[in-house]
Amino acid sequence: MATSPDKSVLFVCLGNICRSTMAEGILHNLVKSRADHSEWQVDSCGTASYHTGEQPDNRTIVTLQKHGIVNFKHKARKIRKSDFTNFKWIFVMDLENLKDVEGIKPDSSKSKVMLLRQYDPEKDCEKPIVIDAYYHDDSYFELCYEQCLRSLKAFLQKEVTEC
Questions:
Q1: Does residue 132 have an active-site annotation?
Q2: Any residues with CB less than 8 A from the CB of 41 and at least 6 apart, and which?
C-alpha cells in the first residue's frame, strides 16, 4: 500500500542526531502495529548540516533500546525544500527550529509546521519545547524520550485515525 499524505511526518531539530531521531524512532514504533502501518512516511532531519551522514547519538540509540525500540537506523541529513511537499506534518523541537523552518518554508507549502510538544498534555504552555539532551547526561535523553512519547501518542489520538 502506498503512503498516505495525511500520514507523513517529518521531525526537525538542529543536528538530526538526538531529538528528531528520538521522535522518529518512537513514531515508527507506535505505528508498526497499526493496520495502516504501511501508509506511514516518517523521517527526520536537521536545520544544520553539522552531522550529515552520521548515525544518531549513541545515547539516543541506548534510550530507544531501553524502551524496546531496536534496530533503528538513520543517517542525519539537512532539511530540503522537497520536505515541504513530501510531508503534511513537520514537527520541530524548539523555537529556534520553528523560526528556521518557517524561514525556508515555501509560500505554496501546505505542510503544518509546529512544535511537537503542542500535543503534550504535560507541556509548559509558555515554552513547549523538547529538551535538547545533547550537552547533558543520560537522564536528559530519558526526559526527551518521555516528552516525545507523550506528544506522539496524543498526536495519533487527536489527528490520525487508524484505517
A1: yes
A2: 3, 7, 8, 9, 86, 87
